[in-house]
Amino acid sequence: MKKIKIEPLVFYGLALLHIIYVWSTPVFVTQDGSCHLHNSKILIVGSGQFYSQYLELNLQLFPNWFSSVILTLFLNLFSPIISEKMLITLIIICIPLALRYALKSINQQAVFMYSIGYVLSSVFLAFGFYNSQWSIAFFCLFIGFFFKKQNEYSFGRTIVCSGRLLLIYFTHPVAFIEACFLVGLDYLRAAFGYFKNFRTYLQQLFEITLHRGVIILPSFGLFLVFYFSSGGHSDSIFENKLFFFEYLRNLVISPYLLSFDIKELILQGLFSVLVFGAFLCIWMKKIKCTTVRIGENLLALLLVNLCIYFFISGAMVVGSYLTVRIASLIYLTLILLAAPFPFPFKFGYLLISSTICFLFLIVRYPYQNKMSEIAENYIELGKCVKSNSTVLPLGFSNRGEIGLEILSRLGVFQHIGGYLGMDKRIISFDNYQA
């Protein structure tokens, strides 16, 4: 009998479970999702006189465009609620799929570690940081392609790398900065090796310099224009958080994974054991491997992640929740760091990580379903609002407080006014993104 391959079955099984999780609720509510949906709708119908009284279309090539563009394409074909669910489904599936590709490029034997990627895609989804999550997927695709043929400097590979870096830029600047750092670090390592035999390898040094320049310069130029035109540079980007216990604790026992129920604390602990435990187990043993260069590059990337987490404020990206976004990249880097080395407990890791993902869905579904019912009622009441109206939604229950019960520890109803503008012209004054 042929040996049954467990890993593909687990991948498709988890994918199916998460698709059911999203589509079994009438409205999949997230903290910022309704704002993304409303703004994408405005991009389609926003050329009229009504919107121009309040909003001016900003066509600057800044980050965070990606989810709006994708939602706009979906909205031309489907209803708003269906369009948002399709975007969410793509996010949930693409992150583990891209992580699987990156792991396979680093070490074929490490593919099984992709399963923990479902935590990064589905659990962090409660925040509604669509662009930030897309940046994780594109970052994994970039890493996988970049490490696949490290010493190949062909024109085609250069263009593909540059294109993928542009995709990261149009999702979120933090992942973009880290990808640029990875390219620059690899160039310095290669250039230093060529410098030892400068005369002999002068042509190769020129080729690699041209290759790295073409990869970085187009998107990095856009980033500089965005940064200096956004006004974020006027504030201090440095903030010392290293000696605050809460930031150290939040990395190990992450409150970012606790969105609905206290039961999630147990799953958080198991998640931390898998992510940090695998990294410590592999690196403390100092196992020799053939991909040391990749490991050293990723280790340097981890240090950059930690520096951003502890010393950079949200002013750098002109946004908020920077620690949440960078924490997900730290977890991702730790997973990738363990990939180059032989791992002794593959089946156990796959089993535990898959169980964690499944239990997260079991714990969260009742809360997600209840929030969906509330959102449906809200949308139904919104039909009483006339088109071409300005609305100030007063959120007296941003977290879904019902008596002593709290549906979420996030402000999932904080920007729910965005749903009012799905099928009519409305200016919602809680739409901070607009």
What does this structure look like?
- This protein has one domain (6-428).
- The termini are far apart.
- It is built from 15 helices and four strands.
- Helix 4 crosses helix 5, helix 5 runs antiparallel to helix 6 (117-123) and helix 13 runs antiparallel to helix 14.
- The strands form two sheets. Strands 1-4 form a two-stranded parallel sheet. Strands 2-3 form a two-stranded antiparallel sheet.
- The longest helix has 37 residues, at 346-382.
- Helices cover 62% and strands 2% of the residues.
- It has 434 residues and is an all-alpha fold.
- Strand 2 (401-402) and strand 3 (405-406) form a beta hairpin.
- The chain has helices at residues 6-23, 33-45, 49-52, 66-75, 80-106, 117-123, 130-148, 155-169, 173-196, 202-230, 245-252, 264-285, 292-311, 322-338, 346-382; strands spanning 389-391, 401-402, 405-406, 426-428.
Provide key terms for this protein.
two-stranded parallel sheet, two-stranded antiparallel sheet, mainly alpha
Annotate the secondary structure layout:
Elements: H1 6-23, H2 33-45, H3 49-52, H4 66-75, H5 80-106, H6 117-123, H7 130-148, H8 155-169, H9 173-196, H10 202-230, H11 245-252, H12 264-285, H13 292-311, H14 322-338, H15 346-382, E1 389-391, E2 401-402, E3 405-406, E4 426-428
Parallel strand pairs: 1-4
Antiparallel strand pairs: 2-3
What is the strand tally?
4
Evaluate the radius of gyration.
23 Å
* Computed structural class: mainly alpha
As a percent range, the share of helical residues equals 55-70%
Measure the end-to-end span.
59 Å
User: Mean pLDDT, rounded to whole units?
Assistant: 84
